[in-house]
Design brief:
Helix content: 25-40%
CATH class: Alpha Beta
Radius of gyration: 16 Å
Largest sheet: 7 strands, mixed
Shape: globular
CATH topology: Aminopeptidase
Number of strands: 9
Number of domains: 1
CATH architecture: 3-Layer(aba) Sandwich
Distance between the termini: 44 Å
Length: 214
């Protein structure tokens, strides 16, 4: 049976949970549209996260890989368009690493574009009443590190699609961050399910606007 690989992260920056893992963990072992769902938790650590990701892709040869990360402060489910070949950490990772202006992959291209149907996913989420948008940056921390490494690896596996999704804080996290947006776990889970089904069913993305003026 073909597989879908979902990747989430452990908590970081003094948080006790990471919504990316909470939102995907329950999908592990499920069958969705004829695909076996496999979930793995990544460390919030430069290098180690890619090692684990690459090992999982080699082991399961998934048809679809979606990595999910926490983006505290964002108000919706953000479908990432692009990953850049730069690690530039504002904070240290969970093992104290703080690379500055270092490439994710030495001699890799400047950037990789998601191979998910990002506009179709956003449209499907919005039609379901879930706030969603295309994001033009995955940052320069471990999330971008993983997205870039994922797309770099999948460039050598043309039968596989992949990309990255950012989600907001959970309500219990937002309670500790005055004024921060949040989203319920149930809405996040429904959003991830819609993203998976859309990515599996759509071959050619729809030409809807998703850009930004600044």
């Amino acid at each position: 049976m073909k597989t879908v690989l979902l990747m989430g992260f452990e908590p970081f920056e003094q948080e006790v949970v990471n919504p990316s893992w909470e939102a995907i963990a329950g999908f592990h072992g499920q069958i969705m549209a004829g695909y076996h769902i496999i979930c793995r938790q990544l460390p919030c650590v430069f290098g180690e996260s890619l090692d684990m990701l690459f090992t999982a892709i080699d082991r399961f040869s998934p048809a679809l890989v979606i990595a999910v990360g926490q983006a505290g402060g964002r108000t919706d489910i953000s479908i990432e368009r692009i990953a850049i070949n730069i690690d530039d950490a504002r904070i240290a990772d969970n093992k104290g690493n703080q690379p500055i202006d270092q490439p994710v992959i030495a001699d890799g291209p400047t950037a990789w574009l998601s191979t998910l149907p990002i506009k179709s996913i956003v449209w499907a989420l919005q039609q379901a009443g879930i706030p969603a948008s295309v994001s033009q940056t995955a940052g320069t921390f471990v999330c971008n590190h993983v997205m870039y490494g994922l797309l770099h690896m999948l460039s050598q596996r043309p039968m596989s699609k992949g990309g990255f999704i950012h989600i907001p804080y959970l309500p219990q996290q937002a309670a500790a961050h005055l004024g921060a947006a949040s989203m319920s776990l149930e809405t996040m889970q429904r959003g991830i399910e819609i993203a998976i089904l859309t990515a599996l069913s759509v071959e050619t993305d729809i030409p809807l606007t998703g850009g930004a003026t600044h």
